[in-house]
Sequence to fold (247 residues):
Amino acid sequence: MAVKRAEGKWRELVYIDLLAGPGKGIDHDSAREFLGSPLRALAVTPAFDRLFFRDLNATNIRTLRKRIPPTAVHRVDLAVGDCTVEAGRVVARLSERTLGLAFIDPEGFEVKLALFRALSKRPIDVLFLFPSAGIRRNLAQFMKQPHTGLDDLMGGREWRELPIAKLAAGKRVGSDEKSAFVRSLIPLFRARMKTLGFRYQDEADPIMTNEKNVGMYHLLFLSQHSAGLTIWKNIKKIGGDKQRPLF
Fold:
């Protein structure tokens, strides 16, 4: 991305984190503190020109503000607010010659389809942690409610017509059936994203697991340009040790 900025194709590169948190987290196994996504993004080289951090929790924003290095304060824009509302506000401040990356990692069902619709107004690639675990955990309850957070995320009620969703409405379903339901939801979500212009998507989305190897999230990459998908696929080939696998 920075190469194209240097060539003058883009005026600036921005990073958007609409559920930023306090900047650090605690590992459940070791109880050790680790850097959260905002502080990691601040340390990226070449640097982002501007970084927009938002969180609905005012305490998180106050804590994050204290953790931002003095040398990076001028690049950071912080505010308290709902992620969907703030997505529209941030995008309204970006020019068409801005290239962005948005990281969307909800704890539950805070994210609505309207958030992605707002991001689609500018050249912004998206990394989204699809809440697979939350869907499995709440599926039976969702089927009994007239309106849920899953309706807001999926942009409608079509998911209720999926065979496994109908099954969940009538009887208790096992973990395998719930996992199959999540897998059937993702193509439906992908189709929604394509209607918003995110035509280039990673078809081999990695599943993020917890310490018990239980699938918690599907990491989805969404872009409006083929170059974004090419960059993402190349990134995936590099492991945490900065080495590329043989195959």
User: Anything to note?
Assistant: Residues 59 and 108 are 19 Å apart (CA to CA). The beta strands are 12-17, 24-26, 33-35, 50-55, 76-80, 98-104, 124-130, 200-201, 207-209, 215-223. The domain at 2-131+186-236 is CATH 3.40.50.150 (Rossmann fold).
